[in-house]
């Protein structure tokens, strides 16, 4: 009888830990985000610096990633028509590689973490700090930190009219 008094609480704790680690409800619950295009006061016109289309790696991922320089000179990464699987601890990475077709290429190339993804569906914006050197970081990865997996990647191509100036 004493054995059950120990086994049941241990089982309940293990079940809770497994739920927290895997968050299975996120496989069926979507989080939609529809942020407006950022505006900033300034004399500069909005410029498209680079753009790319997402391709799937571990999970179906689609949409477009575009980097803009807005009126005040700041830079923003914008996802449009974006969609991927939901998951625990999913982040947006700028990757120091031309593309990332697997998990290892993200980790080996190096990356800058732009923060937790705002939603697995919809249009969303991420501010790029001054440490993001676009001559080095050529891809965007949707990355699950909990399991170290690349959901999908958008290889970025620089806007030719901007790069020639």
Helix content: 10-25%
Strand order of the main beta sheet, please? 1-8-5-4-2-11
Contiguous helical run count? 3
The average pLDDT score comes to 88
How many angstroms does the end-to-end distance come to? 79 Å
- Low confidence ranges: none
What string, H for helix and E for strand, traces the elements in order? HEEEEEEHEEEEEH
The shape is elongated
CA radius of gyration: 19 Å
Question: How would you sum up this structure, described in words?
Answer:
With 165 residues, this protein is an alpha+beta fold. The protein has three helices and eleven strands; from the N terminus they run αββββββαβββββα. It has helices at residues 2-22, 103-109, 160-163; strands at residues 32-34, 47-53, 55-56, 62-69, 75-83, 90-95, 111-116, 121-128, 139-144, 149-155, 157-158. The strands form two sheets. It has a six-stranded mixed beta sheet. Strand 4 (62-69) and strand 5 form a beta hairpin.
Structure described in brief:
The chain has 165 residues and is an alpha+beta fold. It has 3 helices and 11 strands, in the order αββββββαβββββα.
């Amino acid at each position: 009888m004493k054995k059950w008094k120990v086994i049941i609480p241990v089982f309940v704790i293990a079940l809770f830990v497994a739920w927290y680690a895997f968050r299975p409800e996120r496989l069926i619950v979507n989080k939609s985000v529809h942020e407006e295009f950022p505006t900033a006061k300034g004399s500069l016109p909005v410029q498209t610096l680079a753009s790319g289309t997402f391709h799937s790696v571990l999970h179906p991922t689609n949409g477009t990633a575009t980097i803009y320089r807005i009126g005040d000179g700041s830079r923003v990464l914008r996802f449009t028509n974006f969609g991927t699987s939901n998951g625990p601890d999913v982040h947006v990475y700028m990757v120091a590689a031309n593309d990332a077709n697997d998990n290892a290429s993200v980790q080996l190339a190096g990356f800058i973490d732009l923060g937790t993804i705002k939603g697995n569906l919809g249009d969303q914006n991420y501010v790029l700090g001054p440490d993001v050197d676009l001559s080095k970081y050529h891809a965007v990865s949707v990355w699950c930190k909990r399991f170290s997996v690349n959901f999908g990647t958008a290889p970025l191509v620089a806007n030719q009219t901007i790069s020639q100036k």
